[in-house]
Design brief:
This protein is α+β, with helices and mostly antiparallel strands and 286 residues long. 22% of the residues lie in helices and 30% in strands. It has eight helices and 16 strands. The strands form three sheets. Strands 1-2-3-4-5-8-9 form a seven-stranded mixed β-sheet. A seven-stranded mixed β-sheet has the order 10-11-12-13-14-15-16, with no helix packed on it. It has a two-stranded antiparallel sheet with strand order 6-7. The chain is globular, with a radius of gyration of 18 Å.
Length: 286
């Protein structure tokens, strides 16, 4: 199936599905946050495209932004079998093949924006070589908020230390990692916006082109029900209260300003717009 593509002005946005798999509900809702509204036993009936009786259908999208003179990749997915996420869930991402099918080689990418440091968003950052791990996108500037880098440096778990050494440290060693913290424009119409809570340095990306604005939401939300329950304290959020506030603010803005949403994990389409039906928010496919 062709990757979903949206053209705004002279900018082409392509949603790339790196992984489509499932996670047990017991791991997704592990007691570290709120239980899902209505209880996990009702999720499959209310959201059949997202849940079965015992699992969440986990989709992981990256976004390719092609401007006339610049190529930007937002997030790098789960990665290969030996990535941190691959080792954990036993899955392999397809991002390199999908990029190649679109005619984009690793050397073509100018910027890689990492919305945050979680392993399902950094998996294809690097590639092994005879001298160790090196940046996969050799000509790119990687952008990751310093709060996330500092946060991960403090981890002591063996797997987390290994992940940092393989996926983040090589970017620093190569001089390709930008850890600036200010909200700023990276290229014409494309800007970074700090949106903390999921992680300390979590960011959204805002594109303004052709009279339309697109919000690349990162992990601002994971589930459709969060559109109408932004106060849900998600178990994956480092700071659930802050994450809920940030989510509510951006969703209100997205609805009131008519922003298009590009989401990593929320179906039915990775690119949609919030609409109201029966007093409820829905994400309508673009």
């Amino acid at each position: 199936m062709p990757a979903p593509t949206l053209t705004v002005g002279n900018v082409e946005i392509t949603a790339i599905l790196d992984v489509d798999t499932s996670m047990p509900l017991a791991e997704v809702f592990d007691g570290s946050g709120d239980p899902p509204p209505g209880g996990s036993e009702s999720l499959a009936a209310r959201y059949p495209d997202e849940f079965t009786a015992d699992s969440w259908r986990f989709r992981d999208h990256c976004f390719l932004i092609r401007m006339p003179t610049r190529v930007t990749l937002i997030d790098t997915g789960v990665g290969p079998a030996d990535s941190a996420f691959g080792r954990w869930l036993g899955v392999v991402g397809t991002l390199p093949d999908e990029l190649a099918a679109l005619g984009v080689m690793p050397d073509d990418v100018d910027d890689v924006i990492l919305t945050h440091i979680h392993s399902d968003h950094t998996g294809w950052n690097t590639t092994p070589s005879s001298s160790g791990w090196i940046p996969r996108f050799s000509n790119a500037r990687y952008h990751l908020h310093d709060a996330d880098v500092a946060w991960m440096r403090g981890f002591v778990d063996e797997e987390d230390v290994r992940e940092f050494a393989e996926a983040i440290a090589p970017l620093e060693s190569a001089g390709q990692l930008d850890t600036s913290v200010e909200d700023r424009e990276l290229s014409t119409g494309l800007s970074l916006r700090h949106a903390p809570g999921h992680t300390p340095g979590h960011r959204c990306v805002l594109l303004d082109a052709g009279g339309e604005r697109v919000l690349f939401a990162g992990d601002l939300l994971h589930f459709t029900f969060q559109l109408n329950d932004p106060g849900f304290r998600a178990p994956g959020d480092d700071n659930p209260e802050e994450g809920s506030r940030t989510r509510a603010e951006w969703l209100d803005r997205a609805e009131s300003e008519g922003l298009t949403l590009a989401t990593a994990h929320v179906p039915p389409s990775p690119i949609g717009r919030i609409v109201r039906e029966g007093g409820q928010r829905l994400l309508r496919r673009r």
